[in-house]
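WARN no homologs supplied; continuing
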Amino acid sequence: MVDEGKKISDFPAIIKDVQLHPVTDEVIHIDFNRISLDQEIEIKVKVLTKGDAVGVKRDGGTLEHSIWELDVICLPTNIPHHLEVDVTNLGVHDSIFVKDLVLPAGVLTRHYPESVVVTIAGSMREEIAAAVPPEEGEAAAAGAEPEVLKEKKKEEGVDAAAGKVGGQAAGAAKKDDAKK
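OK structure emitted
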């Protein structure tokens, strides 16, 4: 409902939803929520990484982004466009937690402070190398041939199984004869 004498453009609002055309991606419809500029609101803000992590460049790790959006509480005039996380000094198995984020003045979050935002995971090569002792790794790399196991012939397996069943049946028949 719009007050008399005021235009819709006179009210502060935020975008709630945007509907796009499925083929052309043109905007079809936008939903707005009217807000008050003097009351705090809860809104999601994107978390972006900045820099190249040492653990990725030098050690071959992988940057894993656990939280892509952070729920923040603030006045509508203090909403940050995004939050930047500097990952330049992160090594393998290092993490940045919610408590490590520097939020702008007047901005709070309800996320658990020990939640991981980004981490550098070790590479698979590192984990395999750590699991295999150096002596065994060198022997395997020297060209040791794998052991070849032969399968039993199907006929032998079937005959052996039939012999057991037949033997058990014969034993049961002898017991029945003895009882009579």
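The two ends are 100 Å apart (CA to CA).
OK
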